[in-house]
Amino acid sequence: MTTVFVFHEVKNGDHWAKAWSKGKGSRHEMFGKLGIKCQTFRDRQNPNLTGVLAQIPDMAKFQAFIASAEGQRAMAEDGLKVDTMRVLIEWVS
Predict the structure, then answer these.
(1) SS3 for the chain, per residue?
(2) Under 8 Å between Cβ of 56 and 62
(3) Alpha-carbon distance values, 8 to 3, 23, 33 (Å)
(4) CATH class for the domain made up of 2-89
(5) What is the pLDDT of residue 22?
(6) How far, in Å, CA of 93 to CA of 45, rounded?
(7) Can you tell me the mean pLDDT for 13-18?
(8) What is this structure's pTM?
(9) Contacts of 92 (CB under 8 A, 6+ apart)
(10) What are the structural domain ranges in the chain?
(11) Under a CB-based contact definition with an 8 Å cutoff, are residues 87 and 76 in contact?
């Protein structure tokens, strides 16, 4: 299991948060199909600065999904500013 923190800016933080509201069709459900559990974060001073803490069982599947048409469509629908995306992978010394 790999722990990853992904942070990025979005065009509209409220719109992004709605996509992550738990339930049918949510991003939690979408990533859950890959066995990925996510927690979401927003900056109180700038609600368009968002992040996801994810527990990822298979990084290759995660990376393939993000590069897929479905993954790209989800990012576009959520208003993700892809050029701002940063991925921090848990480092264990």
Answers:
(1) CEEEEEEEEECCHHHHHHHCCCCCCCHHHHHHCCCCEEEEEECCCCCCEEEEEEEECCHHHHHHHHHCHHHHHHHHHCCEEEEEEEEEECCCC
(2) yes
(3) 17, 23, 23
(4) alpha beta
(5) 81
(6) 33
(7) 95
(8) 0.88
(9) none
(10) 2-89
(11) no
